[in-house]
Amino acid sequence: MSVASPALGGTRTTGHDPVPRHRFDWGQPFIVLLALVIAAIAIGPVLYVFVGGFRTTADLNANPVGLPSPWTLDNWSAVLGSPRFWGNVASSMILAVGTTAGVVIVGVMAAFVIARYTFRGREGLYLLFAAGLMFPLTVAALPLTLLLRTLGLHGTFLGVIIPSIAFALPTTIIILVPFLRAIPDELEEAAAIDGTTRVGFFWRILLPLSMPGLVTVGVLAFVGSWNGYLLPLLVISTGTLPQELWPLPLGVTQFSTQYSQDTGAVLAYTSLSMIPALVFFLFAEKRIVGGLTGAVKG
Amino acid sequence: MTSVIESVGPAVSAGSTPARHPRPGAGRARKRAEIVLFVGPALLLFLGFVILPVLLAGVYSFYNLPQSFQWDDLADPERFVGFANYARALEDPAFIRSVGNNFLILSLSLLIQGPLAIGIALLLNRRLRGRGVLRLLIFVPYVLAEVIAGLSWKLLLQPQGGVNALLEALGLGAFTQNWLADPNIALWTMFAILTWKYVGFAILLMLAGLQGVPEELAEAAAIDGASWWQVQRHITIPLLGPTIRIWAFLSIIGALQLFDMVWVTTRGGPLNATSTMATYMVEKGQFGGQPGFGSAVAVILFLISLVVALVYQRFALRRDLAGSITRGVR
Lengths: 298, 330
Description:
The structure holds 2 protein chains of 2 kinds. Chain A is mainly alpha-helical. Chain A has helices spanning about 20-50, 55-60, 75-80, 85-115, 120-130, 135-150, 155-180, 185-195, 200-210, 210-225, 230-235, 250-260, 265-295. Chain A has a domain at about 100-250 and about 275-295: MetI-like (MetI-like fold, Orthogonal Bundle). In chain B, helix 2 (about 25-60) crosses helix 14 and helix 5 packs across helix 8. Chain B: Belongs to the binding-protein-dependent transport system permease family.
């Protein structure tokens, strides 16, 4: 990273005060330095974990900081060669895909009705879902696990997926309703004149047009599920599912407890667990940032 | 997906053709059916897996329930204990400590993370080469699962871990600590990890908010001789108000619900130094085999969150959200 040229810098406000000279001399390098420090703090620990995965545990114990000597791929290949790691990844994938699909399908259907039908109780319905934001998973967690046990879902993937969908619905509906509402009524009227029913309008016109909103909602649900810990902890870790099929956050925790002496292996397992989220983030960055900032701006 | 679209569309429209004209009641019944069909699944899931468990938490909280909970237990008058679970929680120093920890984290977040994020965002709010890369990098901690970030920090903060070794290497050996195991500093360490994890999100939120602040005002003020700081103080920060207040709201809720990070790094220890309401609840309710008592803790947690949120909304968010929830449906 290099210092931006003055033309690109923030000096365009004035041209006649001592202020710009001051800012030109000190401001820009200072900003770049600040940016570098922030970036280093943000990714330093992550890099440490990554690089640590290339060291032997003996090397790590002898000298906790410093570069690997020798570099070794043993830890990484051990993790990548273990069915356990891939089982964790597959399990997380199943949970995240199942949750995302459920949230998007069920959510858009409900949002469609709330956004485009007039009926008594519509506002109440919307309020009910919106109020769901105030009902955190933490509060519901214990009764939920007992409920799932009654339903025979304790210890199963569905036992995680179904509540995850339910808890993602409030955000989903709050984001999607304005989206679906923004599509002009004229389109619906035109479709009606052409003989399309409301439901036909939903499938053929509304869904394609609201794709960006659906993607945002889907990405948020996916990330939420992928990173989720409390629900898998309560539903899966106390069940009969083998560790090989635990979702990643649970699997990593378990691995690091089980092999706490083998720091190199734990670092490798942890760093490899970060990769899916980071890769996904690289592809979905705009949606995540946009969705979050858009969501909080209401 | 497409096949579903193709098959549902025509089938439904074909079926509706006769119903369109004859009786007005048919159209209404049809509309009602559509409403039920479309909202039904969401409503069922939501009522069954969000609302019902929260209500059940309220019910359970009045019972002394065993780990091997059976629904019959609720019918057993012996098990009904009234408010005893609540009294027990409120008398337990460990729980009081947890509540205090939640509020300490909450206050520190508002007082330290907020100004930090605003300051950094103001300084970075200019065209800067590599800003896209920087944005990606400061967002990395936020994307990582709290659990995975927490485990990494747990390794880094061990007595023989990377942080202490780095301090030694820098000649600051006097500052080495047993970061997460020393009751006097564990909570501060926890706060530092949380700041690392979440300040990037705050910075990005503030930067997004700053894009909505018109440059002309700042330029005009600068021409009138206002210093950089005066411009920020009197123009930019007030205009950033809505973003700041919404960030603060998210931060407050997050601080009160804090669980994952604490659970994987310290599990609330040492000596409850880092325990939160949520870790206390899971510890007692799930792993301590006392669902009734755990539920009472959950209800207290819920009430505290609700009161804090309502008070905050009443006093701070009123202007920004003016009805975004209540008047969301026109």
